[in-house]
Design brief:
By secondary structure, this protein is an all-alpha fold. The chain contains 10 helices and no strands. It is 81% helix and 0% strand.
Amino acid sequence: MLACCVMISYTTHALTGFGGIIIAVTLASHLYPIGMLLPILVPLDILVNSYIVARRHAHIDRSILFREIVPFMLIGLVIGIAIFSYTRAAELQKVFGLFVLFLSVRELYRLLKNTPTVGLSRVTSTGYMIAAGVVQGVYASGGPLLVYAVSGFNLPKSVFRSTLSALWLITNIMLVTSYSVTGKVTWESVEYFLILLPIVIGAIITGEKLHGLVNERVFKIVVFLILIVAGLSIVIL
C-alpha cells in the first residue's frame, strides 16, 4: 500500500514539479506516523527533483528562484525545522489542510470560469512564501502555499516545474541534513528508501511522459485538483 501511495504521488510530482510529498504523506499517514514517513519520503523526493533539474535545467528561472523565492522560503524553513524538532504540531496540520482547500477551490473556480488570477501584493506574496517555508520544514509539504504565491508570475508549465524542482532540491537537502543531525534517519528508514527506489524510478518515467502530453490549461487544472485532493485528505485524516 505504501508503494502504491509513492507511485501515485511521485508520478504527480514528475508531471507537475510539486505534490509528491504532500500526497504521499496525506495518503500514507493512514498507515504510518508522519515522523517516520518524512525521513523516507524526503530523500526519495530529492531523487525526483535531481532528475528534473538535471534533465530540464535550461527551464529554471534562476532570477525568480534565487531573488524572489529562496530567501523567504529559507526564513520559514528554519522556523519549520525547529517546530518539527520539538513538537508534533497536529492541529497545525488540520489548519493547513483547510487553508489549502480554500485557496485551491477558489483558484480552480476562477480557472474554469476563465477569470484571471488576482495578483498578490509583494507583501502578501512574501508572507505566503515564508509560510510555505514553515510548512516545508514541518511537513516537507510547502508546495500548495508556494504555488499560490508564485501563481502571479504566470510561468509556463516547463519553467514552473523545473524552477520548483530546483527549490525543493535545495530545501529537501537541508531537511535530510536536519533529520540526520537529530537522529531521525535510521537504518529502518534507509531500508524503506531502498525498497521504494524502483517505484520512484518508474514514477519518474511515467510522469515525464505525461508532462509532454498535457497542455497549459489542463496542466493548471490538474495542479489545483491535486491541491484540493491533498487538502481534503489532510482535513479528514
